[in-house]
Here is the input.
Amino acid sequence: MLTMAPKGTKDMMPEEAYKWQYIEKVFADVCARYGFSEVRTPVFEHTELFIRGVGDTTDIVQKEMYTWEQGKRSLTLRPEGTSPVMRSYIEHKKYAEPQPAKYYYNIPCFRYEKPQSGRLRQFHQFGVEVFGAKSMMADAEIISLAYEFLRELGIKNLTLEINSVGCPDCRKEHRAALKEFLKPNYDKLCDTCKDRYERNPMRIIDCKSPECQKLVEGAPMMLDYLCDDCKKDFDELQENLKAAGIPFVVNPGIVRGLDYYTKTAFEFVTDTIGAQGTVCGGGRYDHLGEELGGPEIPGVGFGLGKERLLLVMEASGIEIPENKPVNALIAYMGEEPKRAAIKLAAELRRKGLAIEIDCMERNFKGQFKLADRVGAENTVIIGEDELASGKVSVKKMATSQQIEIPFTLEDIAEAIK
Ligand code: ATP
Ligand code: MG
Here is the structure.
């Protein structure tokens, strides 16, 4: 047990970590091009933030949070990114500055779930949020950002599905119709959904239990109940997406798992990685700010699961380049050459070159093997003879061609660049 990571968590060893670095860099680059700035919030928050911000009828709050008492406080490991980022925006009074605010984040999240492929207890998300903009321009901007990111990674087999979940006004009517529809089968609902039936029946559509899934077949859909304003915005969003050249399908069945969502809801889904097919999920949440005790702050954002993203890339056969150039290995033999090698390695590294040096003090043969193993482009050889003559040998590993050059920093740097 001592040497095993807890269930639902994963180490990222170097063989995998370089892939994470790659997608993180692409994401940061795309965000910069769209004018989004990074926000970093704490890994834990007051429990109340998630109860209010995520909603106490959600799976997250009802079953999945890592919560503990510390002194008089209840604290919770962040299960998602939107509430903390909104909390930070309110705390720092960013709403008083020119709007909108455009943020992105790159975070670990924690949910106590049944671990399976693409579902972990510590997982990782990219996300973006636009605060302060009511217009469907913002919704189209973030969908375009996600689309561009996925396109840049070379992912082709993801489908964008969009829906509108309306606003509190038009949801009332849908809610009544949905309850009417489910009433005859109330007893067959799972316990969680029995509770949702009164408090938030739309969430029943999103229940993972197969029983409940069957019961909601043919249920009234929110799209048929949209008020004029919500309908206008949903049309507007579709026009904006068409203008951006982003293909999409309308899926009236998308209900985001979180209560504060209004209007736009969307997902990027795939059927290539099994059951956990939603790689990116997002939407609009115009009432989260007030819910958290701030002013009215329209907001729209998405969360994108990095583990699922990597699974899709793997399933699509996308190779991530392991970009690890090693300009040279400095091989040494003998005490004086060793010190000379240490000095040379430090100076070359200071010049920006990537240099390997053997920490095992192997013989020349062992050091040449090491040069091959780390993929060094050159080996610089320093022995007693070389030191005495003021020369070093540089071997090009690709051709095995060996040249002798003066032992100066400039000459060596030039030779191995
Ligand atoms: P699901 O329906 O799959 O449980 P969700 O609605 O709970 O997803 P969100 O809260 O919208 O998910 O989170 C955004 C994204 O984070 C998801 O689309 C998914 O890619 C990823 N994600 C969510 N939960 C997990 C998890 N336990 N392990 C790995 N990735 C996850
Ligand atoms: Mg979930």
Summary: Residues 59, 257 surround magnesium ion (ligand 2) (CB under 6 Å).
